[in-house]
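Consider the record:
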Amino acid sequence: MTYAVEVRREAFGLLAGGMVPALVGAALGVSATTVRGWRAEVGGVIREQAPLSVRYLSREERYEIARLHEGRVAMREIGRRLGRDPATISRELGRALRPPGAPGRPAGRAAGRAYQPEACHRAALAARVRPKQTKLATNMRLREWVQHRLNEKDSPEQITGRLLKAFGKDPEMNISHETIYRAIYVRPRGELRGQLQRETRAHLRTGRSTRQRRNTRQPHEISSQQHTGPGHIIGAVSIHDRPEEIEARLVPGHYEGDLVVGPGGTRAAIGTLVERTSGHLTSFHIPDRTTITTINALAAALGRTGWPMTTLTWDRGKEMAGHAQFSIDTGIAVYFADPHAPWQRGSNESANGLLRQYFPKGLDLADVTDHDLQAAVTQLNNRPRKRHQFATPNEVLADILAKDQTNPGVATTG
């Protein structure tokens, strides 16, 4: 069944406003499946129909120009009354009075009386909706650079920030992350095609075939019982008792940790440690996530962290039941996040999500080799981060180390 363009346009407007396809279909008298199909055609990239920018003349302004010009009001005065530059009025009248395709501009006031405001406004709108090729379609160097970074699993926003660092404000080598997203998700127009487009989607963190609206809801507040409850850990020190300097991320050496686990029934896991100041990731393989194995693997990994560890914040998993002995043996204070509050360890949760790009859910982590694990960690430590103005964790850590050597008298690790 074919639907009018106006129905589709209204559907996209409702989708852009946050309405789900079922409600959009009910409002317009079409099926939810049809609405989902329309959304899939544009890869989920839906924008609200924006009003005409104030930089362009409106229909009302064109009618006022016609009225004033017919009354022999000077162009400079017309501009003053409309709040427009006189040159804008002159160009509007000059372009509008030429027959289509005719060079030059009309002369004399008699021609000015032929100004047609409605026809001029429609012509201006038609001229604005011409097909335009994007930079990715016309700039081979930029397209190859972007595709390389996508293959390295950088996000479009990270690519945009890294371009700015690498090429400064060179207009030919700058592009918005929205343009990259559109090249990935919207039906190809020459930038990314077929198999290449599907492979690029797979490199993104979510791996989705369409772009999804960001959930703007805030995490639910947790109860005071959750703040103080011991969970599975005896003698756990709450995250709320951490020193303020840890929250500020100003001093290196404070880490967040957790396990990335395989499917149910498997025992192997990957341990992750993220240094809060730099975002530097350290990972290690755990063949059997018992308390003893986890603590031993964690202790062995301390020699490979980018910066000496002074504190560790962990999830309330049973694998850290031996935290007290770990603190005695290493001198590292261990804090525990509240139950069901992963956002309290945001740096670690983000790193775990990125690591899942390499080792997806359903994979038996016993099959992961240390070589593959460390190769993934190396890539992640060389990915730009928005909070570091798109510097990489390795670059930030190197800068911290350089400053520490320059100022050896400044205590940073406790």
In short: The chain has a mean pLDDT of 79. Residues 225-406 form a domain with the Nucleotidyltransferase; domain 5 fold (CATH 3.30.420.10). The chain has four domains: 5-41, 59-100+107-128, 135-203, 225-406.
